[in-house]
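pipeline stage [seq->struct] | target=Probable allantoicase | organism=Glycomyces algeriensis | residues=341
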Amino acid sequence: MTQTLEPGDHLVDPGHWRTLPDLAARALGGAVLAANDESFAEKESLIRPYPVVHQPHTFGHKGQLYDGWETRRRRESGHDWAIVRLGIPGTVSGVVVDTAYFTGNFPPRISVDACRLDGHPDLTEILEADWRPLVPVAEAKGDSVNEYAVRDTGRCTHVRLNMHPDGGIARLRVHGTPVPDPSGFADLPLDLAALANGATVTGASNAFYSNPVGAITPGLPASQADGWETARRREPGHEWLDVRLAGRGTVRVAELDTTHLKHNAPGWASLEAHDGETAFTLLPRTKLQPDTPHRFVLDNDRPATSVRLHIYPDGGMARLRLYGRLTDDALAEMRRRFDAP
């Protein structure tokens, strides 16, 4: 039986979950795999990284051009849907359904389902998967950012966005916590600061220009905006970024990448590790160059659970990579999370 929410039941203050990474982001490997209909506007628009753009009275052979996914006017029973593969599987804490510029053609209600299919399933397997509700049928508003908190602790690999009955949606964001598959880690060295491996940005002294999570996302930085950048500091002190590692582990190599930061790179940086209440230096204060990937081999054999990157006095860091090995206990805990129902 379909569960229907009263208006506003799921339209909650997003609070902390809006700060979690978008697991469906194209930059993380997300993809829109299928939709039952995309007569007016293509499904791939749902996970575009940039803000929605709109030019009224611009018409193509399908009608008004929309930066989003739009289906035909449904004349039969049922509803429309699109399936998104998460770039990084994990637990979902909140969903954003943005109907920007869809005014007379937005869906009055939406729902979101999820499934878990590890490995590399094909579309037939995905369509036949055991789907569970993340967001039951809920009211949606036109030309609005509709926010839905999710209370689900299971690992998700795919989500299905449903429009009841039809219409258009500009963007879908699926905020959550990565839950990586530890079978590929074994005893191999890995980037303990990588979002894809389960690391998380837990704090930053300043995030004026960009979301700090950019510093631990996959791939090479694409532009000056692709990373972490602070405002210009006008008072004494310096800026910092805190990263909780994928698990307790020993960091042996650090990469501090200032690519694209030509006139706003930090002058110096240092790394401070924390293992419970104990703090120790991984990298002493070291001079950095602008627009340069820096690689430092560390004289370290102590495990840590988190690392604070200090930059002096301000500026940006395109990417932070901390290569090392998980402890046996940390790897066992990762396996436990992966195997949890």
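stage status: PASS
auto-comment: Residues 1-14 have pLDDT under 50 and may be disordered. The helical segments are 123-127, 328-339.
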